[in-house]
């Protein structure tokens, strides 16, 4: 995957994507696969900002 400045990786999904996200933290990634991918992207592209975001919808 090649990323350039200003590009993002966006995850949309269900409770698996939501993964325990803190509802008070808009930029929180929780502890699921989006957080893991964010770590990989951060290691591969340390100079980029706002790299990974997500929106999951857990069932109630």
UniProtKB/TrEMBL annotation:
Gene Ontology biological process: lipid metabolic process
GO molecular function: lipase activity
Source organism superkingdom: Bacteria
InterPro entries: Lipase_GDSL_AS, SGNH_hydro_sf
Name of the featured protein: Lysophospholipase L1-like esterase
């Amino acid at each position: 995957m090649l990323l350039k400045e200003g590009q993002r990786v966006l995850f949309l999904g269900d409770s698996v994507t939501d993964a325990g996200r803190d509802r008070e933290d808009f930029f929180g990634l929780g502890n699921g696969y989006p957080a893991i991918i964010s770590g990989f992207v951060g290691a591969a592209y340390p100079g980029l900002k706002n790299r990974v975001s997500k929106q999951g919808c857990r069932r109630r």
